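Reopening this ticket.

The earlier resolution said the output was attached, but the attachment link was broken on my side. Pasting everything inline this time so it's all in one place.
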Amino acid sequence: MIHHRDYFELLNNNKLWAAEKLKTDPAYFDELAKPQRPKFLFIGCSDSRVPLTSILESEPGDLFVHRNIANQVNLTDINLLSIIEYAVEILNIEHMIILGHYKCGGVKAAVEGLNEEDIVENWVSQISDIYHYHKKELETITDKGKMYDRISEMNVVAQLKNLLRTPIIQRAFRNKKKLWFHGWIFDIYTGLIKDLPLPLREWKEYDLLPEDYLSEAFM
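Inline output:
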């Protein structure tokens, strides 16, 4: 039998983690077994270098999370739509956060392609559209890495707009539910999170936000 050290190390780490939690709080897992009440829905990238619980120092039960390549909000993605619906209508989560990051491989793939990996390219086609729409502006950025990072920021804002367009969110607005939306970028060079400015006026003009929606709700 071939033993894979990294695999068994994961299982051992879990035992150490559980033992440490019980050592500091004997009732920790009794509390964890109670119904979840997260305050935040995160839609983030699957990139292994962006460990949400670590960079936010959060505990199990704090975050309701969906991840995919390049943090896409695809209006035909039943998995994501189910998560959004569950978050809004069952868990009553009020804060929706889309988290992108610098040095995103999905962003690079959208611009440069991945040769034969056409499924990935199809998945990030929205980012390709963003690149071509803003090509004149983006090509003024001479550093290619910084250009990709700028596209990552644009992508987060675009996916928030898609989130607002979902019937689930629009229904929540009609039902006067309180919802707050945030666009974040994880700066992989510094470990810090950037809270991106959002085009609220534009979204209101597109009837994606209620007329009485306050900009303070996005702060």
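Reporter confirms the inline version is readable. The chain has one domain: 40-218. Confidence is low (pLDDT under 50) at residues 215-219.
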